[in-house]
Amino acid sequence: MRKVWIVAVALALALALGLTAAPAGAAAGKPPIPLPSAPTGLASPVALPQVVDPVPAYQPQVSCHPGDMIGPIMLRDLVLATYGIGGRGNISRGCTEGVSEHSEGRAWDWAVNVKNPAEQAAAADFIAWLTRDDGLNARRLGVMYVIYNKKIWGAYNTRAGWRTSYAHTDHVHISFSWNGARGNTSFWTGTAGTTDHGPCARFKGSYAAPTSAPRAARCGAPTTALVKTSRPNRQYGSTGGTVARLQTLLGVPVTRRFDTATQAAVRSYQRAHDLPVTGAADQPTWASLDRSSIKKRTVRGFTAWKAANHGRKHYSRNTLSQGRAAKAVVILQTALGMRVADRNGYFGPLTQAAVMKVQAKAGLVPDGVVRAEEWQAIR
Description:
Residues 251-289, 339-377 form the Peptidoglycan binding-like domain. Keywords: Signal. InterPro entries: ARB_07466-like_C, Peptidoglycan-bd-like, PGBD-like_sf, PGBDSf. The protein has helices at 2-16, 70-83, 117-141, 178-181, 186-189, 241-250, 260-272, 283-289, 304-314, 327-335, 349-362, 372-377; strands at 107-110, 143-148, 151-154, 163-164, 172-176, 227-229, 294-297. By secondary structure, it is α+β, with helices and mostly antiparallel strands. The protein is elongated, with a radius of gyration of 24 Å.
């Protein structure tokens, strides 16, 4: 039964976001409520350029970083000031509620109930203005998708119109691209934005480390976690005994709730041990923090001498630098004699500092990048 339930939930989510076709006979295409043909909409605070922002691609949440972002805040304030109706709703939430972009602070729920005529009319005007002209204003705001009254519309799939979704009868859900969430779009700046790919997950099954700056380059594929523990992943909003164990190990008050203090302590620990600073207790973090929980390591049985020889033999033709996550990084960390708690396969600042120390001693350029020369210099 559990497997059937999980499959059903996954299918519902895919349908809601338009990632798969709706079942035969399902209503799709038509809007969730009657929309005006000439909506009033919102007034931009700047002169809009002729060039239009790129179509927002579907960018699901990848990090656990609750905190209201500027794009949703500005849109919320303008919508409420323009229509003078509905509730403020919420932007950021915990990280245990599924994929909705709320846990990254880049989604806003405008509390307008479809059963309230005045609230529905305001929602209709806004939605009509946002989605008209093939989503022109959605592009200018960096809005990925909108859900209302059991229907979803996506800027990345405008040809499909409104597709079947679920719930959302008492609020309009608006999810933003990273560009839209950061407020880097023409509606606010007067200049068409470029695509911001957001933060990148380094290990499969883990969150990405939050970023404050746009990312122009696409993220590479995350590597498979190089260690498996008996501890399940936990993040902001989680509760229970596993969280209590985490808090005990971190030396913070044991509340059995993954709160802001616990998240801050996890981030601090991750910085100190060269882990991606995700703020979540993922497998690499558990393996470093609670070594007794380790069930499987991809890399094991290497002394520093054997690791250095292995690196010279197998990785001399490649380069390793900060931000990389790979088996080769574990070999490097072992060869460098780093603490066992820091040998997690992520090339962070501590690994870079150890490499630069080797480079300085060998008379190499201390740039922190590992090439054949660096492997030869590690003894």
